[in-house]
C-alpha cells in the first residue's frame, strides 16, 4: 500500500494522538493535498484491550482539538476494530465518538457490524449535521426498540441526503430487525419495513435510499402507502434489494409528486413480473429516469417488449438498463433500440444467437452505448461475427462481457480480434471465457491494452514524430511495456529509417536503429520520472 500523502493538519493529529494515528486518513483524489482538505477517521484495525481506556481518552480530546474540529467530517467503523474488546467497550466507544465528534460529522459509516437499536439511535441524536449514513452489512438487534430508530431518523437528522442499509443476519434470539425466522417460510413474522420507509419519507433533504435484505424475500413491505409516501418525498434515487413487491406496491411507487421524479430506480429480486414492469412503463417515468435496474424480477418478453417500446420514445432519457437474470429472449432484443442507452446488461437471459445478432445489428447504428454485458446468453461464434461487424463502424463501445458462453470459441474471438487490430481502436475491455489458443488470448489482451492504456487512435493519428515518440514510445518505456514500444515503432517506421534516402529506397528499421530509438525513449521517460 503506497504511503498516504500528508498535510500539516494530518501530521499534527498523528503526532498528538499516537494511539489513533493509524486511524487518520486524508481524503483526497490526488497526490497534492491542501491544508484545508478534510480527514477521515477510519476505525478498522483492532483496538488493544490494554490500551482501550487511553484510546477513549484520546478520542475525547480529539473532539476539542482545533485541527480535528475543522477537518474531520467522516467516520468509518469496521467490525475488525472490535475484535479484541467487549460489548460494553463497544458501547463506550460509540458514546465517546458521538460526544466527541458527532456534532461536526457529515458522513458516518458502519460495516459488517451488529449493533443495538438504542445504541444507534442515541448515536444519531449526536449527529445533527449528518448528510450520509451508510450501514453496510449491519444487523440491528432489539427490534422491540425500533421506534427509537424511526424517531431519530425523522427528527434528529434534518440534513440527511443519503441513507444506505444492507442487512446482515444475526441469531433469532437477538431479535434482529427485518430478519425473518429461519423456520418462517411464509415470512409472516418478519417485521415489515413500512415504519422505516415512512420515517425516511419525512426527511425533507433525503435524495438517495438504498435498502437491502440479506437474502431473497428477506424484506417485507406490508402496505402500498409506505411506498407512496416515499414516492412523494424528495427521494430521486431508490434501490430495494430482496424485497418482493406486488403490483399495488409498484403502482404506489409510480405516484411521484408533480415537481420531482425518480432519476434512478433499482428493484433487485423484487419479483414484480410482467405486470409490475408494465406499470413502470405506463407511468411515464422514462421522461426523467436515467437508470433502471430490474434484475431477477421474473420478466418475460411481454414486459421486455414494453420496455423496448418505451425506449423508442424520443423523449426518453434512460442511460442505464439492467435486466439480467430474467426470462428474455431474442424477441426482446429484436424490438430494442439503443438510441439513448450508455449501459446495457442482458446477462443470464436465453437470448441465443438470434438475440445476440439483433443486438449487434443495433450497435451498428448506436452512437452512445459504451458498456454491454452478455454474460451466459447461450450465444456462439455467430454472435461474435455479428459483433465484429458492428465493431467496424461502432466507435463508442468500450466494454463488452461475453464470459461464460461455452460455444464462443477461438474462431469467434479471432473475428473480433481482426477488427480490433485494423479498425477499432476504442474497445478497452472484452471478457471471454478461457480459450484453447493461448496466442489468441495474448493478442486480444495486447490490443485491448493499447486501446485502454495508450489511447491508440490518438497516438497513431499524431503526425509530428516527436509527439508520437513522447505519447507512444516514451509512455511505453515508462510503463516497462516493451511489446507496446515495438508496436508503436512498427506502426511508424520513419522514426528509424534513413531520412536522407528517398521513400522508395528507405530500408526497414534495423535492430540498431530500433535500439537507438528505444534508448531515446528511455532517456525521455527517465527525465519525466
Automatic annotation (TrEMBL):
Q: Which InterPro entries match?
A: Leu-rich_rpt, LRR-containing, LRR_dom_sf
Q: Which residues cross the membrane?
A: none
The residue range of the signal peptide is: none
Question: What single Pfam family name could you report for this chain, choosing any that match?
Answer: LRR_6
| SUPFAM superfamilies found in the cross-reference section | RNI-like (SSF52047)
- The name this protein carries in UniProt is Ribonuclease inhibitor
Identify the species of origin: Seminavis robusta
Amino acid at each position: 500500500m503506497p504511503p498516504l500523502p500528508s498535510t500539516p493538519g494530518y501530521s499534527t493529529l498523528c503526532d498528538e494522538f499516537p494511539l489513533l494515528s493509524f486511524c487518520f486518513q486524508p481524503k483526497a483524489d490526488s497526490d497534492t493535498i491542501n491544508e484545508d482538505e478534510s480527514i477521515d477517521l477510519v476505525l478498522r484495525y483492532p483496538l488493544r484491550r490494554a490500551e482501550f481506556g487511553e484510546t477513549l481518552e484520546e478520542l475525547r480530546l480529539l473532539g476539542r482539538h482545533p485541527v480535528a474540529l475543522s477537518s474531520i467530517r467522516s467516520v468509518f467503523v469496521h467490525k475488525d476494530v472490535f475484535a479484541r474488546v467487549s460489548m460494553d467497550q463497544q458501547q463506550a466507544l460509540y458514546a465517546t465518538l458521538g460526544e466527541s465528534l458527532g456534532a461536526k460529522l457529515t458522513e458516518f459509516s458502519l460495516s459488517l457490524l451488529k449493533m443495538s437499536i438504542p445504541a444507534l439511535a442515541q448515536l444519531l441524536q449526536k449527529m445533527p449535521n449528518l448528510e450520509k449514513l451508510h450501514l453496510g452489512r449491519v444487523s440491528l438487534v432489539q427490534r422491540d426498540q425500533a421506534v427509537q430508530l424511526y424517531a431519530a431518523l425523522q427528527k434528529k437528522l434534518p440534513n440527511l441526503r443519503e441513507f444506505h442499509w444492507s442487512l446482515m443476519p444475526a441469531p433469532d434470539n437477538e431479535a434482529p430487525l427485518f430478519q425473518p425466522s429461519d423456520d418462517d417460510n411464509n415470512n409472516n413474522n418478519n417485521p415489515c419495513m413500512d415504519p422505516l420507509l415512512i420515517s425516511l419519507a419525512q426527511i425533507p433533504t433525503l435524495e438517495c435510499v438504498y435498502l437491502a435484505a440479506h437474502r431473497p424475500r428477506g424484506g417485507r413491505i406490508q402496505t402500498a402507502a409506505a411506498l407512496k409516501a416515499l414516492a412523494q418525498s424528495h427521494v430521486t434515487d431508490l434501490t430495494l434489494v430482496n424485497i418482493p413487491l406486488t403490483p399495488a406496491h409498484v403502482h404506489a411507487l409510480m405516484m411521484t409528486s408533480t415537481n420531482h421524479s425518480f432519476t434512478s430506480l433499482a428493484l433487485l429480486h423484487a419479483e414484480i413480473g410482467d405486470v409490475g414492469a408494465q406499470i413502470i412503463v405506463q407511468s411515464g417515468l422514462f421522461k426523467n429516469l436515467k437508470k433502471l435496474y430490474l434484475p431477477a424480477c421474473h420478466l418475460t418478453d411481454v414486459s421486455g417488449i414494453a420496455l423496448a417500446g418505451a425506449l423508442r420514445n424520443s423523449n426518453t432519457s434512460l442511460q442505464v438498463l439492467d435486466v439480467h437474470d430474467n426470462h428474455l429472449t431474442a424477441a426482446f432484443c429484436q424490438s430494442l433500440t439503443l438510441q439513448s442507452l450508455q449501459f446495457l446488461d442482458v446477462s443470464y437471459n436465453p437470448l441465443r444467437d438470434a438475440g445476440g445478432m439483433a443486438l449487434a445489428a443495433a450497435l451498428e447504428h448506436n452512437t452512445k452505448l459504451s458498456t454491454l454485458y452478455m454474460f451466459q446468453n447461450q450465444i456462439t461464434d455467430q454472435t461474435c461475427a455479428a459483433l465484429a461487424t458492428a465493431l467496424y463502424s461502432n466507435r463508442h463501445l468500450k466494454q463488452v462481457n461475453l464470459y461464460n458462453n461455452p460455444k464462443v470459441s477461438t474462431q469467434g474471438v479471432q473475428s473480433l480480434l481482426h477488427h480490433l487490430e485494423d479498425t477499432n481502436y476504442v474497445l478497452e475491455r472484452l471478457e471471454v471465457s478461457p480459450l484453447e489458443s493461448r496466442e489468441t488470448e495474448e493478442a486480444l489482451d495486447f490490443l485491448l491494452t493499447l486501446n485502454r492504456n495508450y489511447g491508440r487512435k490518438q497516438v497513431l493519428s499524431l503526425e509530428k514524430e516527436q509527439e508520437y515518440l513522447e505519447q507512444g514510445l516514451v509512455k511505453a518505456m515508462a510503463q516497462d511495456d516493451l511489446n507496446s514500444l515495438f508496436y508503436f515503432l512498427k506502426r511508424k517506421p520513419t522514426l528509424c529509417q534513413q531520412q536522407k534516402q528517398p521513400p522508395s529506397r528507405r530500408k526497414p528499421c534495423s535492430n540498431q536503429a530500433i535500439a537507438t530509438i528505444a534508448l531515446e525513449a528511455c532517456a525521455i521517460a527517465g527525465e519525466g520520472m
